[in-house]
Amino acid sequence: MSQPTLPIQSEQSASMRYQDKYTYVLLLLFAAGIMLVVSKSSPLYVINDWVDLNAFLTMGKGWAHGLVPYRDLFEQKGPVLYVLFLLAHQIANSYLGVFIIETLFFFLTLVILFKTARFFLSSRMSLVLCFISAIFLTLSPFFKAGGSAEELAFPAIVYTIYLVFKLQAQAFKLSKMSYLLSGVSLGCLFWAKYTMIGSWVGFFLSLAVCLLIQKELKELLGAVTYSLLGFSLVSFAVLAYFYATGALGDLYHAYFYANIALYPPEGASSVAGKLINAIVIYVSYLKDYPLLFAALLGGPFIALFDKQIFRTNGVLFMYLSSYFLLIATTFFGGKFYEYYFLVLCPFACLPLLSVLVRLDRQPVTRLRLLLTSVTCLLFSMGMNGNIVFSKLFPDNPSISLDGSAPEPAQLRFAKLIRQEDNPTLLNYGQLDMGLYQAADVLPVNYFFEKQNIPDSRLPQMMAEQNRLVDEKQVMFVVVRTLQGKSETEIPEHIRRNYDLIAVHDQFFEQDRTYWLYKVKPD
Q1: Is Transmembrane helix one of the keywords (predicted)?
Q2: Last residue of a domain, one of 330, 345, 360
Q3: Do 446 and 73 contact (CB within 8 A), yes or no?
Q4: What average pLDDT score do residues 396-420 get?
Q5: How far apart are CA 91 and CA 188, in angstroms?
Q6: Based on the domain organization, do 187 and 326 belong to the same domain?
């Protein structure tokens, strides 16, 4: 009697496989389209002028050419992040490699969001959630120019949310692989930017509490064992490499000590005070951005009262723990930049889920799905805003303030630098302006840029840069000032040892002037 059903089951299985393939192709195309318009690393843009992105790329490129992070070049993010930029450089010695990495990570984020939505929604309505979520995940000013550690953390953060709902669907049971991947996710975040680990800290602590209450000691033991194994695999790879290169001490100094001890303390000094201050920073800043304010602050209340989404108190506890501990670790230090908020944007997708569950009554046609994806792409482009600095606007101020130059300072200066054999370059007194990348030149000094660390706490940073200028050890020096400054305001020892060969005005966060100097002959 069962034999006649086999062809039907086979057909259903083939149909599901086709549908899955269609879904993933659609998400990949959508991810590429979103990154194309919002990331300045995409082919639609002349360059990516964001200083953090260029610093990461310089570190990855240097690593690819034998310069060990922290030992040979000073920067303060984690080695896992620089591995991604090493891979980006290997893909293409241009911003294209970064664009491809961003697209793949955004695609992975959308896939996990889709799988999360499938616990509650039909396949096509789950795609609708993914499309709308892209607006929140690329919102300006938090997204910046693309390529931030926060953006690349999206898959690991969204995976936390996915596992919370998977636990709900499976009566607080997860596979060994799920726990292993959760540990790997925590390890990657810890070794990329450790302030981003809060969602996983909340996840594991609340999971332990829930399993202890349920007296599921065997499940708890498996969770601890395989999660620790995943975290240890990442940590062992990192520590083994830096031990082998004799750079463990440098890793500690640059990644831990410099981030913790070299920045001036801000806000409260007690742990309780810092936790309260983190919430104050989060809420008070978001109130100026109504859309994100409503989504991120409305999320906890939806979690508290929407029993269609949160069916048990344990799952509710886990979700809120992940959310609030991520706020705590992100803003615990009291210092923040706009892009810090980006790591919390995945939690803005929860209100969408609550709304779409109630709209998932009628089937979504393919035409409406296509129109939704296009609409969300257009809204993402508009609310991100980077598009006005793309090649579609050739006279935009990020190229030239007066419209007189066809290319930005980085490309114009790079042509002058590449006229010399084996040129050397110093990015003086500023974060990485992108000239190392544009000119295809590797740094020759440890402090290849000036970090936002006060000179009083790290005097050797500018001391090294000034020594290179005084001793004329680099062929070119690039300096950046606010637009309107005269050359007399450039440090005297630069003007004494170097000739000014090019000046360029363009916009980067403010109107600025870029100055290129070439060493004077002896």
Answers
A1: yes
A2: 345
A3: yes
A4: 94
A5: 21
A6: yes
Name every residue whose Cβ is closer than 8 Å to that of residue 268 and which is 6 or more positions away in sequence: 274, 276, 277, 334
Angle at 197 between CA 267 and CA 283, to 5 degrees: 45
- Amino acid identity of residue 109, one-letter, is T
Residue with tokens 């995940």: 137
Name the residue among 206, 207, 197 with its Cα closest to residue 174: 207
- pTM: predicted TM-score of the whole model, two decimal places: 0.94
Tokens for 61, please give them.
């490129």
In a domain, 431, yes or no: yes
Q: For every residue of 269-308, which 3-state class applies, written as one string?
A: CCHHHHHHHHHHHHHHHHCCCHHHHHHHHHHHHHHHHCCC
| DSSP codes joined into one string, 29-72 | HHHHHHHHHH-TTSTTSS----HHHHHHHHHHHHHHTT--BTTT
For 335, the domain range is 169-345
Q: Which amino acid is at 139?
A: L
Based on the fold, state whether residues 296 and 209 are members of the same structural domain: yes
In angstroms, the CA 421 to CA 517 distance is 16
In whole angstroms, what is the distance from residue 52 CA to residue 58 CA?
10
| Cα–Cα distances in angstroms (integers) from residue 384 to residues 72, 132, 146, 341, 380, in the given order | 36, 14, 10, 14, 6
- Alpha carbons 235 and 353: distance in angstroms, whole number: 35
Query: What is the reported pLDDT for 269?
Result: 74
Among 166, 161, 210, 159, CA closest to 189: 159
- Alpha-carbon gap, residue 24 to 108, rounded angstroms: 10
The total of structural domains in the chain comes to: 2
